[in-house]
Structures are given as structure tokens and as C-alpha cells.
Amino acid sequence: MAGDEADDAAKIAILKDALYDKVRDHGSELRLFTQKDLMELGIIPAGNLLLLVRVVQALTDDKLFVGVNSGAGIAWRWRSREDAKKYTSLPNDETMMVYAVVDEAGADGIWNRTIKHKLNMHEAVVKNCIKYLETKGYIASMKNVEHPNKKMYIKANLRPSERATGGPWFTDGELDSVFIAELEDIVFEYIKTHSAYLGNQGPPRDAAGLRAPNKGIVKTEAEPSRGVKRPATEITNDDQAGPTKTHHADGTATSTSGAAGRPRGKVYLPMPAGYRHYPTVLDIAQMINDASFTNNTTLGPHEIQQLVDVLTYDGLIEPIKVNGRRGYRVTRPTKQDTVAFSERRKQREQDGGVLIDAPRMGVKPPTNGLTEAPCGKCPVFELCEEGGPVSPGNCVYFMQWLDIEDSVLARPNGAVTV
Amino acid sequence: MLVTQNGAELCALLIDEIYGELPSRIFAVLLNRGRSSLPQLVQYTSMSPRQLRHGLAVLNQHSLLYFDVNSDNGMTVYEPNTDNAYNLARIGKVLEMVDTSLSPSAKDVMQSLLLSGQTRISDLVAAYQSKIDHASNVAKLVKDEGDDWPELNGTNGDVQVVKMPDTSINSAGQLNSVLCRLVEAELVEVIHKKTFLSPQDILRDVEKETLDKYFLAGVKGGKGKIEFQEKVADGLRKVRDESKSLKRKLEQNGTAAKRRKLFSGVGMSNGNGTHEEESGDPGLDPKQVIRINWEKCLVELRNRRLYQFVADMIGENTAYVYAVLLKLLTKRLARCRLDPTIDIKEGEEDIGVGFVTTDEILDNLKTGIDLSLGLGKATKDKISSKAAEVIHEHPPKKKLFIAEAEVDGDASADEEDEEGSGSESGESDAEYEVRGRSSAPVGNGTKVKFADAAAGKEQRLDRPGQLRQHLLLLAESTQHFVRHCGPDEWTVDFVPLMHTLCEAELDSVIEQRSGKPGLRLVRLLRDKGKLDEKSLQNVALMRKAEVQQKMLEMQTAGFVHIQEVPRDNKADVKKSFFLWFCDIEKSATHLVDTSYRTMVRCLQILEVIRQQEKDVLMLTKRTDVKGREKDVMRKEYYDRYSRFRENEKKLFAQVMRLDDFVSLLRDF
């Protein structure tokens, strides 16, 4: 009997190795093998089910096979020998179970409380196991953007999945808004320059001569920051040489004064109806990848679509469909400034991040009566009523707006004569 | 019009500003108490019946009241006409509009009408007669009347009345013809016996009449109900059309139609100066009483607004083309918003708008406009004329679905729309090209050059071609300014367009108040419907804290709203979903009310600074100072006076700008 058993053990060991190797040849670590699959590999002689059970059991004990409950009953997938070794090297069952749970979670990682729940272990035990595994370097803690406050663990040799890291928009679990803003800039500039025609044309209509200075005055009043900005750009002008110079000088005026102070001769015009070459998402993705603005991350059409959508919601661009081809074009083209991208960027750097009046992209929104009146921005608008503590009678905002000094209020009402 | 507290306050203030305190107080009481009779008013206001009668007379004269004489007991009840009261804020704009789109003399007549309220034509003629007699002293009449209401000039804001001798009326014939123009343009309407009944009273009367006439046995069954409603709508329409009786009479007279043919057009009628206007217009019935038709004025104001919008979105030249198109299209359009009880049921209401052909637009375009400007250039192979010239024969959506579309977000619907039409046109590609070319000789001979395959890069289009390009651009715009409803036929779907415009206006307020991030979130919600916070962050690519802060800020401002959806029956707050959404209607109503309030504040501030400068203003009232303030007053005081005038002007202008906003959201 003893000899039989020894014989048996040896036989199973051989079959084990043979089955393991065969299974490895037949698919990746993710493939599930059912009992039928294993039988049909032809390792187990004469369809001996009992033998198969013993072999599989032995493999499972060695952690080389992982039992999985698939929809159609139990199935197995194989695990590499190195990984299996990690399991077998673990001191006790608890640690092994914790490691198994983390392993199963894969690239998404797992929350430590989920581990506790799944295994129904005492917290201290789980903690101990995790500590052991961490010091051994088997698992590592990670951050998940969806649940930034949860302590998550992942197998040390895995990279967190896109879902956990949030894709290209996240750096170290934080939304990288600077990166996004830069890309938005680029995408907007690309769409602007490719969806409108940079024409040489003065302000429309015959009243051009009269109109330009008129608006200029209004604008200076409205935008006090203009004076600050001018000198900076003039310095740039000095460094600049050649043909870009004039363009730059023109452009500066545009960027500061928005729509109105547009230099004669440079203006974006809408493309004729039916224009077929409005840039599409694919075009933009192509451009971004060709110019390799990003290192380490490649932005696919899906990500670009996200950016383009955001710009659309910002009201900077609009989708336009021509012959079923969905392109994007800039809104309010004639109001856009015509400064070259690099120039504007330089200006912004020189201003040292100081908020300038001109918007980062596109044009300022149109104003209307409500937003212009002091009431439109009044912090105490809701409280304001006649006879109340805040009332039209003592409104400081209106007095500022109308440019009435307080001295007028204080003036005694004496008799006035001619 | 439903009045909010702020709206009521505004109406009262406007009346106070223009017609004085007495009518204003009565109006305010009427607004607070609703329909009242004279004895009731005596009780409410503790004024004497005599005073009240004076006040009511002024209000009535300026169409600020509805009244109804009860046939049983002969008691008269009064109701405030808030629409007209609000319209007082628009006086300046309307005058300016008449000035530029008709003629300065028409403006003069309009102004007289505004000053004196409803007027019998013979009275108007008599008033002008005295003016014509004193031709050397033209400004006299207006000035005399100005004594009673000195503020009116101020209300006009920038449109200060500048009297130019050549713009005013200098003969009876001219006055008559100016009146004819105004009547034809429907800017002036006739008063009839039902004018002063409130809409509800009119409905009541018409319903009663209909019952007496057709349904003596009562209304029975579903079919009977529908029939009854149709009859009532007919009756209402008849009442409404009564105010057009003068125009009908003019039209029956052939001359009017002929004249219109000659002088229709945008600014062109500016040219039909004095000498031509004298020629044979039929005399108007001197007994008729006329007043200003605000509804039609609103249509004109809306056209201007659309023009501005296009100028901002596309470009000035295109906008000019659009203005001409609108002018032609809205000639027969009586009002901006159709009355649901009267108009919608007809089922064929687009007849009201009709269409305009390219040739018509061309004929009315000022020759000074260079149509080659304002459009980008692209080589022929980059343009798909097929896509550009797609014809949409029907309005994008049926009227009934618009309400739904508003909720669902237009974008997706549009997409499907476009997709559908795209595939259709794909099939009929070849056919289209053929049609394009064959239509060439029909129109202007050279017209369809654009569709010709032979066009080179720098090919200069002829004028019709250029015009067409602008129109196509308008038709292609995402706002759908124009619908290409047939070969060379253009129309405008006002309802969806105005909806888009409202959104754009809301957008600009939101962007001003909450910045680009706020705008992004709101437009996102409008597009996607209801979203929870997490998906908002994902789609908007914004940080959690930023999103939360912005959403809260905008919720307080009334731009976005939140809905709680419980997960189960227990409705545990911790487990509930919180969905953000944005309700355009709601935000718009809120903003309109805010605007009323802001207008009220402007007028109150005006009162405050008036109080401050009371001493100086008293001085200017003196008869020996009035009219020559600069010469008589001491410099110090004159400076104060002129600064006050400046501020007054600013505040009135601000009220007008606020009205721009309100009209867009509420009336257009």
C-alpha cells in the first residue's frame, strides 16, 4: 500500500507538472479552464476524473492554480511560479488570504475595509498581515481618484489602472488643471486658426474712419488695466525683429481691447457656408500627437473629444456638421484677436501670471444692462429696500458708478440764487 | 402679464416719472387691490373722487387702464394695464426706431402721440396746424407740452429730441402722409369700443356672444367644445383686427399699396422727403382715435435685436443682410409672441411669416454696402455647395415639441436632425447640382455662379452671389438664424431662434457673474440634462472643490437647481442622489424679476440725486432761468446742474439697457 501511495504521489507530481505546462501553453493567466477543458488537454489518462481532481487539488495547494467560480460552474486559471512562490513563502493562512484578496483586485486596487469585510477577520489581524506584506514588498498602498480618502492596496508589481489614476488628466491622483488648461489653449488656437479665415480687411461698412477712434475711447475707459499692459509688450517689440514686429504691435492692441480696437487689416472672418475643412476631433488628436506636446501620455481621440466638449461648453467653439462630417469652428470669429499664439504666451509670461483683463482664450462675453448696473454685482442686492439698512438712498456702489463724490451729499442745502 | 412685486413697483415708478404722482399712486393701488370701482378707490386711497377722476383720466388717456362698465348696475371697474405701463420704459427706443426706419417726421408725430396719449386724428391735425402756422417757431408745441412733463425728454435717454427744422411737419398733407405710413406699418392703431376692456373681459364677452349666437342649447360633447373654442378664437381675432380698420381702408385704396411698393425697404424711406410725401394719400377719417401699437413696435425692436446679435456672432455685413431680410419678413407680422388662444389653434400659423426671396432682399439692399466683405475665402474644392445649400422645407420641430426640446437640450435633437438631412441630401447629390445650375437663368442670369464648378480660387462673385453667400452663412449658423425653405426662399423660425437667443443672453449673464467655469457647468447641464456631482466633475474636467463651490454659487443666483432622488422608500438623505439641473424658464423669470428690481433701483437713485440737487433744480424751474440755464446761472450751480443731467441721462440709459434684457427674455 505504501509503495502504491508513493507511486501515486510521484505520478501525480509528474501529471501536475505536465498539466501545468500544457495549460500555460493554452492561454494567458486570465483564461479560465473548465474541467472539460482540462480533460481535453489529454494529460490525464483515460478520462480518469478522480485523478484529475487529485492533480488539480495538488496544483491548487501549490497556488499554481486558482479556483474561480465562473458562470458555468467551477473553473481554474493558472498562476505563474514566481507568484505562487510568493504565496507559499507567506507565514500563515491569514496573510495568504489577504494577499489573495489584494491579488484578485488587480489593477483597480482594494480598500482595506473591503479586505476586512471579505475575509471577516479581526481588524488587527488584517492590519498585521498588510504590514507584513508591505514590508515584504508584495503589496503597496495606492491612491484612487474616485475615492481619494480611502486607503487602497495593490499588488506591488502592478500599475494602477486608468480608472484608479483617472487617466491622463490626473497626476498623482490630482486633477492636473494646469496641464488641461495648456492643452485647451492649444486646441482652441488650432481650431481658431483652422476654422476661420484670416482676412485683410478693415472694419466693415463705410463708417470705418469714424468708428474706430470712437470705440477706442470707450474701451480705454472701460479697461483701466490697459495702461499696465502696454509697456510690457513694447519691450517685446524691441527684442523682436523682422516681419513679425508690425503684426505683433497690431495684435497687442487687439488682445487688450478685445473686439473693438481691432487693427485695420487683420480680422478673422467666417468661412463660407459648406466649408468642408473644419477641424475634427481626429485632426486635432493628430496634431497634438505629431507635435508631441505631451510626453509619457498619449492622448487618444476620446481624450481630445473631452477637451473639445469642454471648450464647446465654454462657448468658445461650436460643432458644425457638413456632409455628415462633424467639425468644430470658433464662435464669434470676427471678434477674435489675431495675435499669434506664441506672442500671446510670451506676453502672459511677462506679466508674470498677473491677471490681465483679456480672457485667456476667446473674447470677453457680451455685457448687458443687468451685469453693467451696480445692482447686477451687488453683494447686498437681496437686502436692499427702501427704508432698510441698505437702501437706494445710501447706495455707495451707485454713487461710485455715477462718479458722485460724497462731498455732494454732505453739502448743506442753503438757498441757491442765480 | 403677471406682475411681481418688483414689477408693480417699477410700473408705478415709471408712471410717476412721466405722468406725475397722482396717476402713479392710483395705479399702485389698482395693482395692489386689483379691479376696483371708484367708491372702492376712494376708500383705498383716501382721496376725493374728484382727484381720483383726474388721475384716472390721465391714466386712461395714456392707455394705462382697462375699464369695464357693468351693464347691470352701470358701475365702472378699473384695472391696471401693466403691459402698457411697462412699455413706458421703451419710449425712447421706439422713437429712435421710428426715426431710423421710417423718417424723422414720423418720429415727430409718434412723439406727439406719446405725449398726448390717444388722440383723435382731427385733434392731432389741429395741433400740428398751429405748429405749421408758426413754422418759424417749430419746437413750440412739443415744448409747451413739455412743461407739464419735463422729464419726458430725459426718458428718451440718448435719443434726446433735437429739433431740426427740416425734419418736422410743415404741411397738413405731409402730416397726413406720415400718418398713413405709420398706419401702414401698423405702428399706430385705431381705438375701438373694446380697446379698453381687459383681455379677460373681452374673452368673457366673446364667449357670451358666441353662446348666444351659435350654442343656444349649450356646448355639448368634445366636438362641440372644439367648435366652441374655434368660434371664440374667431371672435377674439375679429376684436383684435378691429384696431387695424384704418389700415384696411388704406389698403383698399389702391394708392397705399402702390406707394408701399415704391418705398418699402429698410432705411430707404428716409429718402422719401417732403416733396414726395405731399402727393396723393387718401385723407384719413378725422374722427378716428389713434394710439401707438406697442405690439408691432416690439416686432421692430426684436428685429433690431436680432441684427445686433448677428453682428456679434457673425459679422456686420451679414447682419445687415439679415436686417433687410427681417424687415421684409416681418412686414405682416403683428406680434412677437402668438396668442395661444387665438393663433396657435389655426394649425397653419406659419402663413403669418411666409418667406422672402433672394431677389427681394437684393432689391432692398442699400447700394453702399460692400457685400464682398465679411466673408472668408476658400477654394472651390474646399466648399461643399451641396451641404451649404441644403433646403429645409419645414421648421426644425413642430411647435408642440419645443417645450420638450427645451428640457431635453436642443443639441442632441439637432444632431439627429442634421444627420437625417445629411443622408437625404447625399442621395440627391447629383440632382441637386443640376437643379442649382438650371435655376441660374431663371433668376438674375448670373446668379448661381457660386454653384458653377468652374469657379476659381479668387473668383469674385457678383452681388447676388455675394448676397447668397451671406444668406447661406446665416442658414448654416448653429443658431439657425435663417431657414433656407426653398430655392432662393428664406424664412426665419422665430420661436426656436428666440429661444436660442434667450439662452445666449442667459449665458452672458452667467459668464459675467460666475466666469467661464460657471458657464461651462451650466451649458453642460443644459446639454446633458440632470447630472450628479461626480459626473459633472468628470465631464467638465474640473476639481471637486471648484465644482462644488461654483454650483453652490450658481444655485444661490438661481442659475442651477438641485433635485433629490431617494434610492429607496426610506428616502435616507445620506443615500439619496442629488442631481443638478438647469431650468431655463425658471432662471429667466428670476432674472427678469431681478432686472425689474434693478430698474426700480435706478429710478430710486435718480430720485435720491434729485433730492440732493433739489436746490439747483428748483432754480432751473424758474421761468426766467428755464431754457437758458447756461447763460443765467452761476457757474458753480450750472456745473452741478449739468452733472445732474449727465447722471440722469446715464440712469435712464441704464433703464433702457435693462429693458433690452427684459424684452428679450420676456416679450420677444
TrEMBL record, chain A:
Family to which the UniProt record says this protein belongs: Belongs to the eukaryotic RPC34/RPC39 RNA polymerase subunit family.
Q: Which species is this record about? A: Lasiosphaeria hispida
Q: Where is it localised? A: Nucleus
A Gene Ontology annotation in the biological process aspect, one of them, is: transcription by RNA polymerase III
Give the highest taxon in the source lineage. Eukaryota
Query: Main localization of the protein?
Result: nucleus
What are the entry keywords? DNA-directed RNA polymerase, Nucleus, Transcription
Q: Where is this region: Disordered?
A: 219-265
Name of the molecule in the record: RNA polymerase Rpc34
| GO cellular-component term (any) | RNA polymerase III complex
Q: What is the lineage of its organism?
A: Eukaryota, Fungi, Dikarya, Ascomycota, Pezizomycotina
What residue spans carry the Low complexity bias annotation?
Answer: 251-261
The UniProt entry, under InterPro entries, shows: RNA_pol_Rpc34 (IPR007832), RNA_pol_Rpc34-like (IPR016049), WH-like_DNA-bd_sf (IPR036388), WH_DNA-bd_sf (IPR036390)
From TrEMBL, chain B:
Record carries keyword Nucleus: yes
Q: Where is the composition biased (Acidic residues)?
A: 408-431
State what this protein does.
DNA-dependent RNA polymerase catalyzes the transcription of DNA into RNA using the four ribonucleoside triphosphates as substrates. Specific core component of RNA polymerase III which synthesizes small RNAs, such as 5S rRNA and tRNAs.
Cite the entry's keywords alphabetically.
Answer: DNA-directed RNA polymerase, Nucleus, Transcription
**Of which family is this protein a member?**
Belongs to the RNA polymerase beta chain family.
Residue ranges of every copy of the RNA polymerase III Rpc82 C -terminal domain listed in the record: 178-500
Q: What is the species listed in this Swiss-Prot or TrEMBL entry?
A: Lasiosphaeria hispida
Subunit architecture: Component of the RNA polymerase III (Pol III) complex consisting of 17 subunits.
Cite the RNA polymerase III subunit RPC82-related helix-turn-helix domain residue spans from the record. Answer: 9-67
Q: In what residue span(s) does the DNA-directed RNA polymerase III subunit RPC3 winged-helix domain sit?
A: 506-581
* Record-linked InterPro entries: POLR3C_WHD, RNA_pol_III_RPC82-rel_HTH, RNA_pol_III_Rpc82_C, RPC3, WH-like_DNA-bd_sf
Gene Ontology terms: cellular component = RNA polymerase III complex
Region of interest: Disordered: 264-284, 408-445
Record-given protein name: DNA-directed RNA polymerase III subunit RPC3
In which compartments does the protein localize?
Answer: Nucleus
GO function term, MF aspect, one:
single-stranded DNA binding
What PANTHER family does the entry give?
DNA-DIRECTED RNA POLYMERASE III SUBUNIT RPC3, RNA POLYMERASE III DNA DIRECTED -RELATED
Give the superkingdom in one word.
Eukaryota
One GO biological-process annotation of the entry reads: DNA-templated transcription
